[in-house]
Design goal:
Elements (H helix, E strand, L loop, with lengths): L12 H17 L6 H19 L4 H5 L4 H9 L1 H9 L10 H11 L20 E3 L14 E4 L7 E4 L1 E3 L9 H14 L2 E3 L7 H4 L4 E6 L15 H8 L4 E7 L10 E3 L6 H7 L7 E3 L9 H14 L5 E5 L4 H13 L6 E5 L10 H6 L4 H14 L7 E5 L5 H9 L4 E4 L1 H7 L21 H4 L4 H25 L13 E4 L5 E3 H4 L17 H6 L17 H10 L1
Parallel strand pairs: 4-13, 5-6, 6-7, 7-10, 10-11, 11-12, 12-13
Antiparallel strand pairs: 1-14, 2-3, 8-9, 14-15
Length: 553
């Protein structure tokens, strides 16, 4: 066996060099004081390497003293390196540089035009476009409003594009102030998120949609249940235009949450109606109702307590039979929602585990289509308005979502970009560099409310104007003229389909006489839904039972 001439592993060389440089600097310091920098630098690195060798937690650091920290540094800035130097303008991870740039430009009222043709591959699978007309028309995008709550005493005319749910606590005070002021300036609404209505939501008088989650923040008793008295007091505010019950959200469907005591500041405690400095638990399900019928009764109660304001709910679609149970309850009850907001699984402002973000919840296209088809099939679509949210930052994204059945759209991350978000992907760390998603006052202080409010207004106006230009080119004067026939998708190099051909659409009232044969989801799950429970039931003549009986025979 040969002997090793160099007994020290090569991976220790940087550490040994630091020690040697420290000793040399120390000796040279006797000759010239300028060597003090070497003593400080290499002395610090030598101490760091010694600590690496002695600490038990990081194997990489023990095996590669000093030099391992270069790896950790590069790992820490990896997302920034990819975002700024590697990714192309069209890589959507989660938003492409092109998508972010158009938001920034519209928010700043800068030129948002592009030269030399599209960067997209028009012949690639999945490419989508709007078909235009040889007879384009003139449109007025400012008239793109949606009347919600026609049966209510206080109906609301909403913009076709609004701010989706983001709570104070998730966003900084200055971010909430800027969003609210921008909403007032632009004539659209701000969804409060489930964190309650803070004083920042009320300071500038922008329209609010008050979202109420399972924690009943802002309308709860000390034990966390629903308080009718507190709800009526807040719902009566002039700024509150609609009430939205959150059943689930796209970012983390099926999850509640815990706000640690350290984050429950006096302002957050006041907004949520909870004790300061104590853990706040948001349960995964509501306590005010437990069946679809009870939810309809709760909706009626909130409508009455609010003085006749529109009341609806938001959900991310999961089990089809649960949504069908809600639809059957709407049919069977005198009370029903004035609106429904569908949140796609691609929603993302709420921090959540990787599995929840990547693999939980139905994406927006399928979820919206299912809800729209169900309401059409039950004859309820004319009475219930439908909103949609899920990665919508451009006029085209809004147009294709309207074509799939929505009446209006909401966006969260798009308005965060308008506030100055740079997609640093640090929302969950409280170290947001742009002061948007943080409670660190030193960071959020840099977000200038007046300037960012104008950018929020401008982004909204630019997006609605872009939507209007698409509809005008297609020869459509009104939003309700946009249909699935106007949007096309390339399936391959030789096959193109319109949304009308690509997606199944149910005929009006088709569900009133039983489940249609197509789409299959109705055939399979509509008979198994009941307005009295969220659990699936087994009907007497369910196909699975018939197959089993035939097998027995």
């Amino acid at each position: 066996m040969s002997k090793t001439l160099w007994p020290v592993p090569g991976r220790y060389v940087p550490y040994l060099i630091c020690i040697a440089a420290f000793v040399i600097s120390l000796l040279c310091l006797q000759v010239s004081a300028t060597w003090g920098w070497g003593v400080a630098l290499f002395g610090g690195l030598s101490l760091l390497g010694t600590w690496d060798l002695l600490q038990p937690r990081r194997t990489i650091s023990r095996n590669y003293p000093v030099i391992a920290h270069l790896r950790y540094c590069l790992e820490g800035i990896g997302p920034e390196i990819r975002q700024y130097f590697i990714e192309s303008d069209t890589d959507e991870r989660p938003f492409s540089r092109e998508q972010r740039s158009v938001v920034y430009q519209r928010a700043k009222n800068q030129l948002d035009k592009r030269p030399f043709g599209s960067l997209l591959n028009l012949y690639g699978d999945g490419y989508e476009w709007v078909s235009h007309s040889v007879q384009p028309v003139a449109v007025d995008p400012s008239a793109y409003r949606v009347e919600i709550g026609g049966r209510c005493q206080q109906p609301y005319s909403a913009s076709v594009f609004n701010i989706s749910a983001m709570s104070f606590g998730a966003l900084s005070a200055n971010a909430i102030l800027a969003l609210n002021k921008g909403a007032r300036l632009g004539g659209f609404y701000q969804d409060t998120g489930e964190g309650g209505i803070s004083r920042y939501h009320l300071e500038h008088g922008g329209d609010l949609v008050w979202e109420i989650g399972s924690g009943y923040f802002g309308c709860r008793t000390p034990d966390g249940s629903f308080s009718p008295e507190r709800f009526a007091e807040t719902a009566g505010l002039d700024s509150v235009r609609m009430i939205e019950i959150k059943l689930s959200q796209g970012a983390k469907p099926g999850h509640g949450g815990i706000l640690p005591a350290a984050k429950v500041s006096p302002e957050i405690a006041a907004a949520r109606g909870v004790p300061e400095g104590e853990d706040v638990i948001s349960p995964p399900r509501h306590s005010a109702f437990s069946t679809p019928r009870e939810l309809m009764q709760f909706i009626g109660q909130l409508r009455e307590l609010s003085g006749g304001k529109p009341v609806g709910f938001k959900l991310a679609i999961g089990h089809p039979w649960e949504w069908f149970a809600l639809a059957k309850a709407m049919q069977a009850s005198d009370e029903r929602p004035d609106f429904i907001v569908v949140d796609g699984g691609e929603g993302g402002t709420g921090a959540a585990p990787l599995e929840s973000i990547n693999r939980l919840g139905m994406p927006l296209d399928e979820a919206l289509l299912l809800v729209h088809n169900t309401l059409v099939g039950t004859g309820l679509r004319d009475h219930i308005r439908l909103g949609a949210a899920g990665k919508l930052t451009s006029g085209f994204k809004v147009a294709r979502t309207l074509a799939l059945g929505a009446d209006w759209c909401n966006a969260a991350r798009g308005f965060m970009f308008a506030l100055g978000c740079i997609q640093s992907l640090s929302c969950h760390t409280d170290r947001c560099p742009s002061g948007v998603a943080t409670q660190d006052r030193r960071r959020s202080r840099g977000l200038h409310v007046g300037d960012k409010a104008l950018r929020v207004r401008n982004f909204h106006a630019g997006t609605v104007e872009a939507l209007g230009s698409l509809l005008a080119a297609a020869g459509l004067s009104h939003l309700d003229q946009l249909t699935p026939d106007h949007i096309y998708r390339r399936l391959s190099g030789t096959e193109v389909r319109s949304f009308a051909e690509l997606y199944p659409f149910v005929e009006k009232n088709a569900l009133l006489s039983g489940a249609p044969a197509y789409p299959a989801v109705f055939r399979e799950y509509w008979p198994r839904a009941s307005p009295d429970t969220f659990h699936p039931v087994t009907p007497k003549h369910h196909p699975s039972e018939e197959a089993a009986m035939k097998g027995t025979a």
